[in-house]
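Protein in question quoted in full.
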Amino acid sequence: MDIIADMFPDAHCELNHDNPFELTIAVLLSAQCTDETVNKVTADLFRKYKRPEDYLSVPLEELEQDIRRIGLFRSKASNIQKLSRILIDKYEGDVPRTHEGLIELPGVGRKTANVVMSNAFGEPAIAVDTHVERVSKRLAIAKSDDTVLEVEHKLMKLVPRDEWTLTHHRLIFFGRYHCKAQSPQCPICPLLDLCKEGKARMKPAAKTKHKGKNTKSRVEG
């Protein structure tokens, strides 16, 4: 964790937002979608819609068109309107400040609730997204068949509570920019010795290099 912290000392939430409501919408939209795409969509979305009432003032089809660049845009648009209705009816238009209240909202799961609680309300939490899960399993922090919840609990036990939120961001940056799903930077990774998958990836390269040297020797001989 210290090494990852040194690699990404400025890790932070990359979803653009100005308040808890916007963050909740942004995280909801980010499911199976990149933060970069979400930020492009919300740049216009958050200018048009400021409050839950605004999302309910337009037909569902219009909201769908506003976010159609986002994956699963139809179900997400529907969840946004349902979520907005609950916020108005139950919370006077405000986002609930409890984990229990958040996960009751349509389209808001445990990961989204953890992101909102930690980034909007300053409550320490570790949200396990695809990057955090991948990195945790590659570095043997968790087992390959652990559930997302099991990964979260193991990280919570290993990391001091006051570092949960920072660790979440650092693991995301490490997974997003270094330990990528398809093209991880194993040759320059300072944590390669801890990663079985990384060491396995490096073996073919080592064999090819060794084979090339032998071929060169035979040719020169």
